[in-house]
Amino acid sequence: MRVERIARDKVRIFISYDDLEERGIDRDEIWHNGKKVQDLFWDMMETAYMEVGFDIAGPISVEAFTMPTEGVVVIVTRIPSMPGAGHDDGDYGDEEETYFERDHGFSSRSTPTHMVMAFRDLDDLLDACKTLRQYPVHTSLYHHEGAYQLVIHGDLRPDQWEEVFSILVEYGEMSRVTSWVLEEYGKVIFADHAVEQLLRNFPT
């Protein structure tokens, strides 16, 4: 399990299929609100608190989507309380339990809107781009932590995202940094149309 804080009120959690297997959870079972999945969720929240100081008190939203080989990506967002909606401590406990029963079983697959892939070698990046150019995506390229970091945005169907990931993971790996980190600390190589510019500048 790996936790990344991507905003003040949002964390992203990676759960490998090995992690699920160790807990006796099948891949399809993650979308059902069984006891093992509930236990997994609270373990995730405890890990998020211990590692990045992310705690939950009140309503949250949970998004989850699968990657073919990596595992499951879960994004948890704290939802600000409405003004004037006061709660005492007892009310909060009941609200969290109800919200968990409704949403924390990952009952619906969410579609990602972007991903970040890391490539150590320029040739690997170019090979990936040759295939990626057939998809209607927007791309940016950064250099950070000794790797080329390709940010891919797009309005793709879930199966298309899985296709893209399956292609890219042959040449690189899912990045450990977020697009927000790259915008702040990465060295910009191509801010937009990265795939097109790479293939134009490095024809093969």
TrEMBL record:
Gene3D superfamilies assigned: 3.30.70.1950
Protein origin, superkingdom: Bacteria
InterPro entries, per database record: MecA_C_sf, Neg-reg_MecA
A Pfam family that the UniProt record links to this protein: MecA
Similarity remark: Belongs to the MecA family.
Protein name: Negative regulator of genetic competence
Native organism: Alicyclobacillus acidocaldarius subsp. acidocaldarius (strain ATCC 27009 / DSM 446 / BCRC 14685 / JCM 5260 / KCTC 1825 / NBRC 15652 / NCIMB 11725 / NRRL B-14509 / 104-IA)
Phylogenetic placement of the source organism: Bacteria, Bacillati, Bacillota, Bacilli, Bacillales
